[in-house]
Write a structure and sequence with these properties.
The protein has helices at about 45-50, 85-100, 125-135, 140-145, 160-170, 185-195, 240, 250-260, 290-295, 315-325, 340-345, 355-365, 385-400, 425-450, 510-515, and strands spanning about 15-20, 30, 35-40, 60, 75-80, 105, 115-120, 150-155, 175, 195-200, 210, 220-225, 225, 245, 265-270, 305, 330-335, 370-380, 400-405, 455-460, 470-475, 480, 490-500, 505-510. β23 (about 490-500) and β24 (about 505-510) form a beta hairpin. The radius of gyration is 24 Å and the shape is globular. By secondary structure, it is of the alpha/beta class. The structure holds S-adenosyl-L-homocysteine, iron/sulfur cluster and FE3-S4 cluster (F3S).
Length: about 525
């Protein structure tokens, strides 16, 4: 770490912050109002933005050493996860590490000896929720001073967040980032013994750490195929918080998928911020996302999904592989963000409305029953009503089955945050409402078309509101409710669709009814 990089003094704008120690490896110790803070490394948005030429190192790590393997025996943890599937999956790694240390998952918060908040920085309201929770956790810390309260995930990678915690939330014990999850066992131990706040957030572009344990449950599993993002869409914080695009080696991914198949998982979702950029960073290998999908197609796992793909990198080779179907399901999440080419240019998406429509057309031609879903942002700085109407007309033209829709939220440090924004919030809310109405209509219409069809449903469990009803998903990821027996959970069953709502379908399992089950809904 360079000398300039070690100047943490800018965090502390009050006079009682005192530097009390400095060690060879760059670690600094401060004392602020009686609280000692150890800073191993700090977030730095400027450094996180850099994309250098140095190669990506794959580290095959075993972070839970013998010495740490019983550290958590008899103790409990809780982890609260915000944000996307990437974060959900990181939490599975964190749980895996803690359980290798002997910790057990707490059934109630009071029981927990370690509480971790795995945070998301994508929009301002996501961050507000986390700060609310940090404040709320103060009383738990006061009641149980040995509790280790940690903050990790994407927010930890932001200087402003770490600054705010240091200044306003001294009851936090540990802050670590998205690149050094494997350091968790050591950091928990350090925070426990030192009683200091420990900060270790790497701002380098990121390596790949293999062999980390993962706590997976149920019948569906996530598999990272790549990390980071180099797209730098002008509104988005992810390239800063997740580092540069780097792909796991194909042999490591295939090994993991084969292992999940052996364990009986029914569905996997391949994860990356931009999965179809997979392999572009290999210097010794010509192997793309299409090649990976073609290899995974041959593995005996019933359903394979992926998220998220970027329209710019969605090539013909990938479409041909997906058209082979088999375990590759016919649902594709293809975020469009806007239907207006000028807004797309300001967003830095690197495609036009026409290119996107052409791509959607190609996919539908090759896979006629493909279901497309998307992400849309309304109220980007300067978006006019006409430009928003272009988004509505694109939605009609593509005919999405579902979409995640968001009001634009400025993120510090991103180019869009300094663009002039003259669209009032009321107007943005109104646009979001109109968009959601339209999407709801499309979703209902597409669901109604399914009435009478018999489809394969993977049964996930009891439905949320009625334990007598089972819930499962079609290959296209539509939610289906039906009457059945608990032993069908985790299995594929044939369901005849009998009714359609906007966000779910109702159906019957004929086999179960013939064997004496009841058909109608209570
Ligand atoms: N890598 C994925 C998206 C990850 S973020 C992709 O490129 O598709 C998930 C979604 O959050 C994005 O698709 C976008 O619609 C939304 N989003 C990202 N930054 C945002 C911001 N600053 N304000 C509002 N929505 C945002
Ligand atoms: Fe963000 Fe764009 Fe990267 Fe998606 S592709 S994570 S929206 S920068
Ligand atoms: Fe949020 Fe980070 Fe995911 S910002 S959306 S948790 S990559």
């Amino acid at each position: 770490m360079s000398k300039e990089n070690k100047d943490y003094s800018r965090y502390f704008d009050f006079s009682d912050a005192k530097l009390i120690g400095e060690s060879e490896d760059g670690t600094l110790k401060y004392r602020i109002r009686g609280r000692d803070i150890t800073i191993h490394s700090q977030p730095d948005l400027l450094a996180e933005k850099k994309r250098g030429r140095q190669g990506i190192e794959v580290i095959y790590d075993h972070p839970v050493t013998e010495e740490l393997s019983d550290f958590g025996l008899g103790k409990y943890y809780e982890i609260v996860t915000y944000g996307c599937q990437m974060n959900e999956h990181d939490s599975e790694t964190i749980m895996g590490l803690l359980e290798q240390m002997g910790y057990t998952q707490a059934t109630e918060r009071k029981q927990a000896d370690v509480i971790l908040l795995n945070t998301c920085a994508i929009r301002e309201n996501a961050e507000d929720k986390v700060f609310g929770e940090i404040g709320h956790l103060k009383s738990f810390k006061l009641e149980k001073p040995s509790l280790i309260l940690g903050v990790c995930g994407c927010m930890s990678q932001e200087e402003s967040v770490v600054n705010r915690i240091l200044q306003k939330h001294p009851h936090v014990d540990l802050i670590f980032g998205t690149h050094n999850i494997h350091r968790l066992p050591k950091l928990v131990q350090e925070a426990y013994y030192s009683k200091e706040m420990v900060v270790d957030v790497w701002n380098k572009e990121g390596d790949i750490i293999e062999n980390l344990p993962k706590k997976r449950e149920g019948i569906k599993a996530w598999v990272n195929i790549m990390y980071g993002c180099d797209k730098f869409c002008s509104y988005c914080i992810v390239p800063y918080t997740r580092g540069k695009e780097r792909s796991r080696r194909p042999e490591d991914v295939l090994l993991e998928v084969r292992d999940l198949a052996r364990q009986g998982f029914q569905e996997i979702t391949l994860l990356g911020q931009n999965v179809n950029a997979y392999g572009k960073d290999f210097t010794d290998l010509n192997y793309t996302f299409a090649d990976l999908m073609d290899d995974i197609r041959k593995i005996d796992i019933p359903r394979v999904r992926f998220t998220t793909s970027h329209p710019r990198d969605f090539d013909d080779a990938l479409i041909s592989v997906l058209a082979k179907k088999g375990n590759l399901v016919e649902q594709i999440h293809l975020p469009v963000q806007s239907g207006n080419s000028l807004i797309l240019r300001k967003m830095g998406r690197k495609y036009t409305r026409e290119h996107y429509l052409e791509l959607a057309g190609k996919i539908k031609k090759a896979i006629p029953d493909a279901v497309l879903t998307t992400d849309i942002i309304v109220g980007f700085p300067g978006e006019t009503n006409e430009q928003f109407e272009d988004t509505l007309s694109l939605v009609k033209e593509v005919g999405y089955d579902a979409a995640f829709t968001f009001i634009y939220s400025p993120r510090d440090g991103t180019p869009a945050a300094v663009m002039e924004d003259n669209v009032p919030m009321e107007e943005k809310k109104e646009r979001l409402h109109r968009l959601n109405e339209l999407l709801g209509e499309f979703s209902r219409r597409s669901n109604e078309k399914m009435v009478g069809q018999t489809v394969e449903v993977l049964v996930e469990g009891e439905s949320k509101n009625n334990p007598h009803v089972l819930a499962g998903r079609t290959r296209t990821n539509k939610l289906v409710h039906f009457h059945g027996s608990r032993d069908q959970i985790g299995k594929m069953v044939e369901i005849t669709i009998t009714g359609a709502q906007t966000y779910y379908l109702r159906g019957e399992n004929k086999e179960w009814i013939t064997s004496g089950g009841a058909a109608s809904f209570a």
